[in-house]
Specification:
Largest sheet: 18 strands, parallel
Helix content: 25-40%
Keywords: Hydrolase
CATH superfamily of one domain: P-loop containing nucleotide triphosphate hydrolases
CATH topology of one domain: Rossmann fold
Radius of gyration: 30 Å
Protein name: P-loop containing nucleoside triphosphate hydrolase protein
CATH class of one domain: Alpha Beta
Strand content: 15-25%
CATH architecture of one domain: 3-Layer(aba) Sandwich
Number of helices: 32
Length: about 950
């Protein structure tokens, strides 16, 4: 990790010396000398890496000192850039009326004098640290220590696409466990609601086993209601009940948010009273946790069950003394060896392991003491090594010193996997440390964009930074450090997560190097870390703790991320005429919560300095944050202050704007901004014309609801934009600006009408990198059919059209539709059967017909139609009555969703012949339809009985 920050500093110094060669006269030699020192640090750290991993305390101390001085150097560089920006703005004035004495008009001599002094201090420290290498015998550290990565190995290209990954779900020895637990859950002779508990230490596979059991087809069919509740150590009572309510589909989101906690519990309880349910409560820590959960679970003698996982046997006994806990044992010697071989040598089975490696491998596996997670991670580590005695013996030696005769030995093994990461991927893994332990899933794309904003990712050859970031994430998955929760239709990761033990590892490592500091609801007095680079706030009450965060630690912050929705409310007291201005900045529209409005106010106020005295009775954080690169405040409405433009280092901004307020024009000063994500659920957000000034650095402009952009772009506006999402059509389209955005990969435009047809069509033909297109028509306007017939747009892969279509074009080799793998049609009001045309698309894998996409009565999947279709969704087609599936249609279909088609009488007869179908989800359908799907006696049961996962929700039950 120190190597990563040193490399960053070396790069920044080089860039600074090139860009500011004229301004820096007088201190340029000092900067060049400092760069040289850090280049030596960088080279030495590569050689010292193995010994640092091996526990050499002298080396660790030296590396920590290098990291700290590198942090200071980075702060000096970024602060200088901030000040020089203020200097060059000069006569243009500041965005806010709140100013410091230096913020608006710092002189060149003042800046250089301060920079020279700071460089001198860092230079002297760097020289002292460098001298300590010889003084304390660290010079002898080499790269030949056991378990080390060679220089060539660190530079090898990532090969995750070439090597199969063994998922943790493949744990050996679980098959018999699954059979046993399934029998227990299916047992009908209990006269009480039984609790089946899986008990074992962390990392043993309790959650994995529970997932396998609960996903068994017999279990899915046996219970009418299913829910999975992850408890952990940091949960809220309401959050658990709300999670169950969502999964049971008891009440809609809006009503749920308005219900009191006791009323919500009652709703869930009443919903379950007459139903056979299965609730999985994962990671229950205390008896109190179970007592809170069981209040909403009726004690009915109808075969309902609870599957509970816990590390505490006492909890299991407390939950149900009549059902003995299922103790999950460590794997035996042969099971452990088989699991290791699956991961370490996937092309061979255990009995065919090369004889010269088996003895060494078994010694390594023995160190894992039968713990599945440790074996999987160790196997992944061996997979990265050459299959030779020399390399495996090195790995065996490095495993030895990681293990101790104590409970923390698993963490040691996990740490070994982390330490063997290439230095440039380590900060990407540590970024997971910001996640709450009760919600360790994250949107993969947002995560990768933050990595880029933080400077962890560099473009490589012809690859974009986004492509490199995706490779890094896949590499973490390959090494079993990160788990994939969901992939998109293109094969990329949509959602990913981290095992709780690995999360513990990330948190431990991140704390030790001031990488991330987390403030939680339940913390008492805060323990601060100097030079903390990132701050994560967990929970609605975290502001009560955050007020203790000291101002002298906030100046080094590079990122702030918030997890929570309820924020502090309080009064603002002012003693100057600026009070009205400040109060306006802090006002939240459409909400009585005082919250994120003051966050960005704090950011701006402490940058430009106070002329008003504002007394906040609680939080006192976010001070002097002029070096921020990432601000993620999604989920709570704010009003962006004008002074947002002062944050010139900002690269990632994700906010939800309040009400109808527009984005301030000062955002155009954020010339380093790469990602701008705007959310506004209630109205169109107005983006200022200054957006066009962001030019070359902006890569992703995304609105989660429609946004309009004022003004006209210049000829060179936004040439590197890759995502332009939910932007309203306007005169800017007729300027042919769009065709110059040659790097666009995703484009979403709202309010399309005929007047933009020609300009849009011409521009789309020149966007050769565009793979995802979404168009929404304006009111009664139709989406131009010509959009679908253009022969030069065959590179599109994902297409979503919302609005009227006259008709679908005939499918031929010249059609835009030819190479689509996903198509979504909504409000299309097609009168002709769309399936007859779309079934000819040889590459289509996902088709969604939503909200009157078709307004006829009958649809037919023609013979041999949809040869590659894997997922079909038919949603809320009001007039749809009859569906037919002819011979050999949809031979690869795996998932079918039908919802809200109130006039559909029954499922087609041909559905029973689609043997590939794995999941059928029927919801919001009338009772007459769902009754036909009753097991054994329903009229349509023969059509669906072969489907492993069948989920049917009766609309009448939902309304109750």
């Amino acid at each position: 990790m120190a190597q990563s920050i040193v490399s960053t500093v070396v790069g920044k110094l080089g860039e600074l010396l090139i860009k500011e060669v004229n301004f820096l006269q007088g201190v340029d030699e000092e900067l060049t000398s400092l760069q040289s020192d850090f280049q030596w640090f960088q080279a030495f750290l590569k050689d010292a890496d193995a010994t640092i991993q091996g526990g050499n305390e002298r080396a660790k101390t030296w590396v920590n000192q290098v990291r700290d001085v590198a942090y200071d150097a980075e702060d000096i560089i970024d602060t200088y850039i901030f000040k020089i920006h203020q200097h060059r703005r000069g006569s243009h004035g500041c965005f806010s009326s709140l100013m410091t004495t230096y913020a608006c008009h710092p002189s060149r001599l003042t800046i250089l004098h301060e920079l020279g002094n700071e460089i001198g201090k860092v230079k002297r420290r760097a020289e002292e640290i460098s001298a300590n290498r010889s003084k304390y015998g660290i010079d002898s550290v080499g790269a030949t220590s056991s378990g080390s990565l060679t220089s060539n190995e660190a530079r090898l290209p990532l090969s995750w696409k070439q090597t199969p990954v063994v998922e943790e779900v493949d744990v050996i020895g679980f098959d018999e466990h699954v059979k046993t637990l399934v029998q227990l859950l299916l047992a009908e002779d209990e006269d009480w609601r039984a609790v089946i508990s899986i008990v074992g230490m962390g990392g043993l596979g309790k959650t994995t086993l529970a997932k396998r059991v609960s996903s068994e087809p017999r279990i899915k069919q046996h219970f009418a209601c299913h829910a999975w509740v992850y408890v952990s150590q940091a949960y809220t009572d309401r959050g658990l009940v709300k999670s169950m309510a969502k999964q049971f589909m008891v009440v809609d989101e809006g009503r749920m948010n308005n219900l009191k906690y006791e009323d919500l519990k009652k709703v869930v309880y009443e919903h379950l009273k007459e139903r056979k349910y299965l609730v999985v409560t994962d990671d229950v820590w205390t008896r109190r946790d179970w007592d809170n959960i069981k209040e909403v679970l009726p004690e009915m003698a109808n075969g309902s069950k609870v599957l509970l996982t816990t590390r505490n046997r006492e909890v299991a006994l407390h939950a149900d003394r009549r059902s003995p806990p299922f103790d999950l044992k460590l794997l035996g010697e042969e099971e452990s060896w088989e699991l290791f071989c699956k991961k370490a040598i996937p092309t061979k089975c255990a009995e065919h392991c090369p004889p010269n490696l088996e003895e060494i491998g078994r010694q390594m596996v023995a160190k894992c003491s039968g713990l599945p997670l440790a074996i999987v991670v160790l196997g992944g580590l061996a997979l990265r090594k050459e299959q030779s005695e020399e390399e495996w013996r090195k790995l065996l030696k490095s495993v030895r010193w990681q293990l101790r005769e104590s409970e923390d030995q698993i963490s040691k093994i996990l740490a070994l996997s982390y330490h063997h990461l290439p230095y440039y991927i380590k900060p990407c893994f540590l970024y997971f440390a910001m996640l709450p332990q009760d919600s360790s899933l994250i949107n993969a794309r947002d995560l990768m964009l933050k990595w880029i904003a933080e400077g962890f990712i560099e473009a490589r050859d012809e690859e974009t930074m986004e492509e490199v970031a995706e490779e890094y994430l896949e590499e973490l998955v390959h090494r079993s450090l990160i788990q994939v929760a969901e992939r998109n239709v293109l094969g990329g990761i949509d959602t990913c997560g981290i095992h709780d033990r690995l999360l513990d590892l990330a948190i431990s490592e991140a704390k030790g190097m001031n990488f991330i500091h987390v403030i939680k609801n339940n913390e008492g007095n805060i323990v601060t870390l100097q030079k903390t680079r990132r701050l994560a706030l967990h929970g609605d009450k975290s502001w009560d703790v955050a007020q203790q965060y000291p101002t002298d630690s906030a100046g080094s912050l590079r990122a702030i991320t918030f997890f929570g929705t309820k924020w502090w409310k309080g009064d603002i007291n002012t003693d100057t005429s600026c009070g009205k201005c400040i109060r306006k900045i802090l006002t939240l529209e459409g909400s009585d919560q005082f919250g994120f409005g003051f966050v960005l106010f704090f950011v701006s106020w402490f940058i430009v300095g106070p002329r008003a005295v504002v007394n906040f009775q609680r939080p006192r954080i976010l001070i002097s944050m002029k070096l921020l690169r990432v601000i993620d405040l999604h989920g709570v409405a704010i009003i962006l202050p004008k002074a947002i433009g002062e944050l010139i280092h900002l690269r990632y901004l994700n906010v939800q704007v309040g009400g109808t307020k527009s984005i301030p024009s000062s955002i155009g000063e954020l010339t380093n901004l790469q990602t701008l994500q705007i959310q506004n659920e209630y109205s169109t957000t107005k983006l200022p014309s200054a957006i066009w000034k962001l030019q070359s650095n902006l890569r992703h402009l995304e609105c989660r609801s429609s946004c309009s952009i004022k003004g006209q772009p210049s000829a060179d506006s936004l040439p590197n934009l890759q995502t332009l999402s939910s932007i309203k059509a306007g005169k800017w389209l007729n300027t042919r600006l769009l065709e110059k955005m040659i790097n666009l990969r995703k484009l979403s435009i709202c309010d399309i009408c005929n007047s933009y047809e020609k300009a849009l069509l011409d521009s789309l033909g020149k966007l050769n990198n565009l793979i995802e297109l979404e168009l929404t028509s304006e009111d009664e306007h139709e989406i131009p059919t010509s959009i679908l017939t253009a022969s030069h747009q065959k590179h599109f892969r994902l297409l979503s059209l919302k609005g009227k279509l006259e008709k679908l074009p005939e499918v031929n080799t010249q059609s835009l539709l030819t190479n689509l793998i996903m198509l979504t049609l909504e409000l299309s009001e097609l009168k002709e059967d769309p399936l007859a045309t779309l079934g000819k698309l040889d590459n289509l894998q996902v088709l969604v017909l939503r909200v009157n996409a078709f307004v006829g009565k009958e649809m037919v999947c023609l013979e041999r139609g949809f040869p590659q279709l894997k997922q079909l969704e038919i949603l809320f087609l009001d007039t749809f009555e009859e569906w037919k599936i002819e011979e050999e249609a949809m031979p690869r279909l795996r998932k079918l969703i039908i919802a809200g088609c109130m006039n559909l009488v029954m499922l087609p007869h041909g559905l029973g012949k689609i043997t590939s179908l794995q999941q059928l989800n029927v919801r919001n359908m009338p009772s007459a339809f769902t009754q036909r799907l009753r097991a054994n006696d329903g009229d349509d049961w023969d059509k669906v009985q072969h489907i492993p996962l069948l989920e049917v929700t009766d609309l009448d039950l939902e309304e109750d």
